[in-house]
Specification:
This protein is an alpha+beta fold. It contains eight helices and eleven strands. The chain has one domain: NADH Oxidase. The strands form three sheets. A seven-stranded antiparallel sheet has the order 1-8-7-5-9-11-10, with helices on both faces. Strand 3 and strand 4 form a beta hairpin.
């Protein structure tokens, strides 16, 4: 770990982390290490997959708003009336926010958001409450196959998930679905060291903005929230919170 700068005041945790992950001129002389681009490798091979349609037809723009208008109209929506959202809308939202939109013959992938070093450390879990043609439950998004894998969770209920919120209980309970972002930390840390955690948070922000803009286009309400209990959510989606942990959450509804 780098030595922190000499400052008179005592460091808080965020200052300590920030000072210990700054780049210095000494980094120039380190031999660069080449890493392959990370494909989206997390799979649940034993679970049934629900393959989604890409609806990748951009020739008719009559049903879509412009990017400028989406940026202008983007807003956070916190009140939902429990009208359901269609599976096609969810599919489109996932594909254009974080799907694999291109894969070369040598396996190099391209996805909508920027990602430091193309490491793509973020995973998406969808907590379905009220989506037409999709039963309630918790799903992992398999971006490479554009598919949902339903996680076995016999104790799932909307009221239980509302209790995982800190001050946003009504948003959780009335939302059509939640998207939980987790990070497989090693994907970025392996290449960038402790500084990689900065890039992971930037990745989550890029995806969050894509979700906002796409939900604006699809006329779906959306709000990002930091009020939730990470460890309880990690237990619900069966991740360890160490190698893979919750870093962000977005709610959607009409």
């Amino acid at each position: 770990m780098k030595k922190t700068r000499d400052l008179k005041e005592e460091f808080s945790l965020h200052q300590f982390y920030h000072q210990n992950t700054i780049l210095t001129y000494a980094e120039r002389y380190k031999k660069p290490v080449s890493f392959p681009v990370c494909p989206p490798k997390k799979m649940y091979p034993k679970l049934n997959k629900i393959y989604l349609s890409t609806n990748d037809n951009d020739t008719n723009n009559g049903n879509h708003i412009t990017l400028r208008k989406a940026i202008k109209n983007r807003k956070s929506t916190r009140v939902y009336n429990k009208n359901n959202i269609t599976l096609e809308q969810l599919s489109t939202l996932l594909y254009y926010s974080y799907g694999v939109i291109h894969m070369d013959s040598d396996g190099i992938i391209r996805r909508p958001p920027a990602s430091a070093g193309a490491r793509y450390p973020i995973e998406l879990y969808i907590v379905v409450n009220n989506v037409k043609d999709l039963r309630k439950g918790i799903y992992h998004y398999n971006a490479e196959e554009h598919a949902l894998c339903e996680l076995p969770n016999k104790q799932y209920s909307v009221s239980d998930w509302a209790l995982l919120s800190s001050g946003n209980e009504e948003i959780f309970e009335k939302s059509s679905f939640l998207i939980v972002m987790t990070s497989i930390f090693e994907k970025s840390i392996q290449k960038y060291g402790e500084r990689g955690y900065r890039y992971i948070l930037l990745d989550a922000g890029h995806i969050g903005q894509n979700l906002y803009l796409m939900s604006t286009d699809l006329e779906i309400g959306c709000v990002e929230t930091g009020g939730y209990y990470e460890q309880e959510i990690e237990r619900s989606i069966e991740i360890d919170g160490v190698r893979e942990g919750v870093i962000h959450l977005v709610a959607f509804g009409n």
